[in-house]
Amino acid sequence: MTLVVLPLVLARNLQPRANTITLDASTTYQKIIGFGASEAFGHSNQFQNLADPIRRQVLDILFNKTSGAGLTILRNVITTGGIEPKSPGSATNAPTYTWDGNDDGQIWLSETAQNEYGVKTIYANAWSAPAYMKTNNNANNGGYLCGVSGQTCSSGNWIQAYANYLTQYVKDYQSSGVAISHVGFLNEADASFPYDSMRSDGTQAAEVITALRATLDAAGFTSVLINCCDFEGWSLSQTVLQQVKSAGAIDKLGGLTSHGYAGAPGAPFTFSNLPVWQTEWADLSSAWVTSFSSGGTSSGLTWAQRIQSGVTTSNLSAFLYWIGAEPAASSSSAMLVQWTSTSVSASKRLWAFAHFARFARPGALRIKSPSAGGLGVSAFKNTDGTLSLQVINSGSSSVQFTVSGFGNVSQVQPVLTDDKNDFVFGSKIAVASGSFSATIAGMAMMSFIPG
Ligand SMILES: *[C@@H]1O[C@H](CO)[C@@H](O)[C@H](O)[C@H]1NC(C)=O
Ligand SMILES: *[C@@H]1O[C@H](CO)[C@@H](O)[C@H](O)[C@H]1NC(C)=O
Question: Of 76, 150, 272, 377, which has the maximum CB count within 10 A?
Fold first, then answer.
């Protein structure tokens, strides 16, 4: 018996494996909001002051949907020294707001992203309330917003004043021609830092959310959504958001937000059906890495996998890197792109973002795309009905595969990123009845779009 069967088994194993990726566009999951980054901490100002043509090249590489990464989300910081630098004395006194129309270069960047590149998701995020609204009378080093549960100050309860201040900031942007789409009032409130930072738990956050929602609505900003809570990691964010829910305020939110530093996105947040965003993550300790296959947690491959796993296993609708672009500094990969006065250097992380941001546009629905052949697989149906497929091969050998269910197209075009290629469009491949075959090299990422 064995002598007869064994050769047959061997023969079968020598055949190329039938790695079939069966797309099912009729099974849809979350809607994509977008992919993006921030230019906080003064980088927007450096960006604005950069001379052309480099400035235009950096803008294009981040936001251009035909030549760059096509990012569609910009996360701005609401700085504590900004629109209400001086205390009105007490929480119930009328504030004196100031507006310089520049906001550290963020107005220029937001206007340019919005008006020239069609970026519609502008997330304005406060790291802290101004010092005088806080228990520690300091913008830095944690402290609480005066008046939230368990936190009192002789100057009064500043919850409404903070809501008024955030709403004023949205108005100021509107007066400068920028439509803020989302506002956040906490950043990593699970810890204290020697820069703008403020503590909060979910019960306390719920008190601010309730006041802020009512204040935005009363000012006519019913479509400006509130994001919460940008804690440092996934399970910290899950816990605080469940507290927000228990306190009855989760339905006043527009998005559930988490950073990736203290815990990568994991199991979906099943306690709410609001969209979930990963709003800040980077490897802050490695040097400037541009490689795809090497460079550990700053390699292009790592970020391609993190984004893909975020959308396929964590139900993310948005994924943001920390900084988009900064002046060159060899000691950091906290950004996707670095510039000098004469050159622009894009990391493979940037091109990993491009595979998603360019081909899963805002409003796209993720579709069913089971993996095959050990490949990482994700797929989307865009609002115009076109599909896109992202395939990641983290192994060292090439893998042949067949795709079925790509829809009613006659050709697909592969787009390749690996150590040698930056988002390179390849020769078109014929599609028959929604099906085509392709090969992906080891340590590579490919997207497939209608050709
Ligand atoms: C994007 O890049 C294309 C191709 O280089 C260029 O024609 C277009 O003007 C750019 N878009 C913007 C908004 O600059
Ligand atoms: C995924 O997120 C969407 C909102 O974007 C939500 O409606 C859906 O219930 C979520 N699914 C899971 C499994 O959490």
Answer: 76
